[in-house]
Automatic annotation (TrEMBL):
This is LexA repressor DNA-binding domain-containing protein. GO terms for molecular function: serine-type endopeptidase activity. It holds the Pfam family LexA_DNA_bind. Residues 1-24 have a biased composition (Low complexity). Residues 1-27 are annotated as: Disordered. GO terms for biological process: proteolysis.
Length: 126
């Protein structure tokens, strides 16, 4: 084998980009919700959620649904998982930030039904 052929073979075997450098596929709203839950859980608890914990957070009774959603996130390139390990979820790409929302609270009885407005005014001492 010539040195040039060996170099060509070596370059062909070398990956062009790491999986985390690739742009992941877009997510559905439910998949985005799952990814945000995983990121938030991991940030708070310093460990990824288990399938049961993820199912509980998703308000579903089946860990199989959580597993199916995780498999989709792996396929789309957002997370990776280690087989046969309970909490081995690694986030490869963080979800986009939520838009800033400004909440405006009104302490006016105008937003209440008339029967509750009187009670509200009495509680507020007005």
């Amino acid at each position: 084998m010539t040195p040039q052929a060996a170099t060509t073979i070596a370059n062909a075997a070398r990956p062009t980009a790491t999986p985390t450098a690739q742009r992941p596929d877009p997510l559905t709203p439910r998949q985005l919700e799952v990814l945000r839950i995983i990121v938030e859980w991991t940030d708070i608890h310093h460990v990824a959620p288990s399938l049961k914990e993820l199912a509980w957070e998703l308000d579903t009774s089946s860990a199989a649904n959580a597993m199916r959603l995780l498999a989709t996130l792996v396929k789309k390139g957002w997370i990776s998982r280690t087989p046969f390990s309970a909490r081995a979820i690694q986030v490869l790409h963080r979800p986009p930030p939520l838009p800033d929302c400004e909440w405006e609270f009104h302490s006016s009885p105008d937003f209440l039904p008339p029967e509750l407005a009187a009670e509200f005014l009495a509680m507020a001492g007005l």
